[in-house]
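User: Can you write out an input/output pair for a complex, sequences first and structure second?

Assistant: Here is one pair. Inputs:
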Amino acid sequence: MPEFNRGELFRSPEREKMQNEPIVRFSRPENDLETGEERDEKYVAVAGVELEVHQGSDGSAFSDKEFADFSFDEASIDILKRYAVAAKLGQPILIEGATDIGKTKAVEYLAHLTNHRLFRLSLSGQTDVTEFIGKYVPNTEDARSTFERIIKNRDKLSKGSQAILDAVDQEEWLRGLTEDECRVIAKNEGLNFGSQVNWVWQDGIFPKAMTSDGGKGAWLYLDEIGTAEPQVLVRINRMFEKVARLELAENGNRMVQAGPEFRMFASTNPPEYSGRLPLAPDALRRWTYQKMDRLPIAVIEQRLGFLFSGEKSEVGPTLAKIGVLENTALDFKQETNKELGKVITEALVEFYDQLQKMVDKGDVGKDQRQKVGVEYSDLERTHAFLASFGGADPEKMLHSAINYYFVNKFGAAKDRQKVTQLLETVFRAKGTIAKIKATFKAEKKSETPELSAAQQEAERLMSLI
Amino acid sequence: MPISKTQLNDFLAALSVDRGNLGLIVTAGDAGALIVDLPNGTFERTEIGKDADPEQTIASLLAAAKNKHWCRLDLKDGELSGRVYNQLRALGTSGHLQIVNPPGKEKNMIDMLWPAESKVLVVISRASLEKITVSTFLNLFGPILREE
């Protein structure tokens, strides 16, 4: 009798495809938790990372045609996968990398694949708080234009109006004008709009993205975040909480709460570019920071080859190199997983402690202009990663998580190598791999799911062969 | 040396097929004085600068997209508002106009693919270019023509 491999028998065609194709679209019938009715959920898997497709009316503004020449080379798939993991886990991600490696195109493509509206803000030193937060404006175009023209020429304003603007500037938080302040300035400047004109609040890009499509939330992409004034980043601190929030001090302290589909992505060029300052550690630690190198010449050759001759690169080996993730959850709270959790905790704490010391001493990241820290939040992110992806192969996924949250903070090959070596040293010293294998095997046996009648029949038939 | 007719034609030909949609001419003197015959004759034109209303620039871009015209933006000084920069950057990289709270529109957001027939020509004097503080400004553009 041939050895019966139940895992293979019940392996879905989608799962097979995910190992070999960078993008897989599929449906999965699922029961509605409230009604019990079966509904057809649409998913897309990017390098194995399964993401639900947005079903609302206000989805992607892109078309398939715009991505017809998307090059599935190593760098593109790698960036797509990093964004996909961040979207899946709801962890804001910041990719720092050279111009033209494909940071923007990849986030646009992922938003399109998952049918999410992508709100985009390219930051610069000139970015005005009203653009991303919102502002009060008179509700007629003439009045708006007059008010904004007058307010722009600050040195020509009356002393009373200047005093209001100065007071706003001196506040701890960067903010725009309240309705009362707008009204007083208009009065000071002799603007009599009459009774037909009312002041109305217009949400900026952030509140719109957070509450898009009836409150579900959209995706927000902050481009060139490294060029933003530090006060801009301080203003958005609460958007990094588990449920993103944004307080609109200008709009009567209204609290905007993001919908469940809201996600934040950001990119920046390295600080070596154009002499910009590195991000402050406090701003950086809120993001899953990913440092990417320049495009290797081989990838440039692949991309050009695709443009000039339509020659597609072979995706299979690229996927194998990048690593396809499996969406099998791992519940550490379950009794059977407690031992495994302890093993992983022990190794992670040791790795974290040693890596912190290496960073402090300058053994790694010394030549990197964007200084990075090793934070407790990286450990929390690692836990979330394993809880989502670790159920099939926790050892492999632990390596992936450490690569994603720790190794990828460093750009230089020698630094990346040192961090990887540290991990292996810790694993060896603690006997982590052997312990994972031992605890996980035991768990696998006891975790055999109950089989449906159809599955039992299939198993019975297989056993007769 | 002033820009020759051939140089200008070559530049416009390059811009007309550029996927990034944006071209830049750097003039030796006053940017507004440069005469450029844009390909389809009709075009939107507006000024950007300290005294200009950024919403006017946004309105010109919208009109150009709607009518499939070219758009000429004369950058008078080093003042490039964040709102305009955001649109130029989006046009150059994504080929989309995404305007939150567009001027004079009832809709509170416009997100549209920029038509392939339309291009944006930014004209700036050398002196004004030196005043631009947005460090990635030159990265916005595909073809660039400089008057020597």
